[in-house]
Automatic annotation (TrEMBL):
InterPro entries: Pep_tRNA_hydro_II_dom_sf (IPR023476), PTH2 (IPR002833). Belongs to the PTH2 family. This is peptidyl-tRNA hydrolase. Its EC number is 3.1.1.29. Keywords: Hydrolase. It is an enzyme of class 3 (hydrolase). It comes from Streptomyces luteogriseus. Gene3D superfamilies: Bit1. GO terms for molecular function: peptidyl-tRNA hydrolase activity. It catalyses: an N-acyl-L-alpha-aminoacyl-tRNA + H2O = an N-acyl-L-amino acid + a tRNA + H(+).
Length: 246
């Protein structure tokens, strides 16, 4: 695709008004979420808003979703707690809950037009840990594989997982999307074994590349979206997609 929203090279999409998909993760001082659960919940939040009736057709969010996807596909993760979280919950959006994580996703906003209750939230400070090592992912379920050679903050990794989930969604048929949605968007986020990373990036699965605006070098491959339906049969061109997040 010559004009993909996930290309880091300049394209016609850069001339369109730029929008961003805001995600807010709840991080209370006393009970922060586990890192892996936050990443998985963020990915499910992106899928949930993509599948929501309000995002399609004549839905109330459809215009913003189209404008966002016509330009670059940007996502920004901010953190909130206490009263900040309650103010974020009062804004139009969807809250998605994991085992320990809560993430609220909002319809896209202009890069310079964030609602004040979201604009004041911090981007930094989203460093999270897993109290226990994540269990092995179910090979029959979708897995978003993180690059084992990259160190990313939880907030950065949450956005990248959201990109990968969106790429997988785009590659699926309508029937496969409906089945994933009806099952509650099961997925896992795991760090790939270094010995498998080259294989994962070379078999035509959706692949996220980063433009290098924050934390990591331009062109870095960050996540591979390994959905069973995409392993079963080829979809689209099988190209390795790239991304340019905020």
């Amino acid at each position: 695709m010559s004009d993909s929203p996930f290309r880091s090279e300049p394209s016609a999409r850069d001339e369109a008004p730029q929008f961003v998909l805001p995600l807010v993760v709840r991080i209370e001082k006393a009970e922060p979420p586990a890192r892996t659960d936050a990443l998985e919940t963020s990915a499910r939040a992106v899928l949930t808003i993509l599948a929501d009736d309000r995002s399609a057709g004549e839905g109330e969010w459809a215009g913003a979703m189209r404008d966002w996807q016509d330009a670059r596909i940007r996502k920004v993760v901010r953190r909130a707690r206490g009263a900040e979280w309650r103010r974020a919950e009062a804004l139009p959006g969807i809250s998605v809950t994991g085992k320990s994580a809560e993430v609220r996703v909002f319809p896209p906003v202009p890069l310079d037009g964030w609602p004040k209750d979201l604009a004041r939230l911090q981007v930094s400070g989203t460093d999270l840990d897993d109290p226990e090592p994540p269990v092995d992912a179910d090979p029959a379920a979708p897995v978003l594989w993180l690059n084992p050679d990259l160190g990313m903050s939880a907030g950065k990794a949450m956005a990248q997982a959201g990109h990968a989930a969106q790429l997988a969604w785009w590659e699926l048929s309508d029937e496969e999307r409906a089945a994933w949605r009806d099952a509650g968007f099961p997925l896992a986020v795991r760090t790939a074994d270094p010995s498998r990373w080259s294989e994962l990036t070379g078999i035509g699965l959706p692949l996220v590349r980063d433009a290098g605006f924050t934390e990591i070098a331009p062109g870095s491959c960050t996540v591979v979206a390994d959905h069973p339906a995409l392993r079963r049969e080829p979809h689209g061109s099988g190209r390795a997609a790239s991304t340019r997040p905020e």
